[in-house]
Amino acid sequence: MTQRQEGQKYKYKVFEDKRVTTVINYIMDNLDKDLNLEHLASLVYINASYLSRLFKSTTGVSISNFIHEARIEKAKFLLITEHNKPIKEISEEVGFTNIHHFYNTFKKLEGTTPATFRTLKKRIV
Q: Which fold has domain 67-124?
């Protein structure tokens, strides 16, 4: 799967429960914003704990993991395509307010730092 496909793998998928589809599309369109569970639940007129269970049972991942993975996928795309953009700017653009949290999340999911990822991908491309 390419980076763009990976980051968008749920965006255009239609789930049986339209509320999940609505939440996913909102998340993908608003990665730079504060995406708290209560706000997401209010978008589809259900309570937060029910949305959390519904989302996990429908997609197989928790909302928080989904958001982190989507943000990191978008960051990977930006790290490759926006060579001159500082990593701090990219982290903010994908919704991380703390650069250390961004680095830790990136390293946890990708096994490398954003800077190393960018350097390795520059050599390949």
A: Arc Repressor Mutant, subunit A (1.10.10)
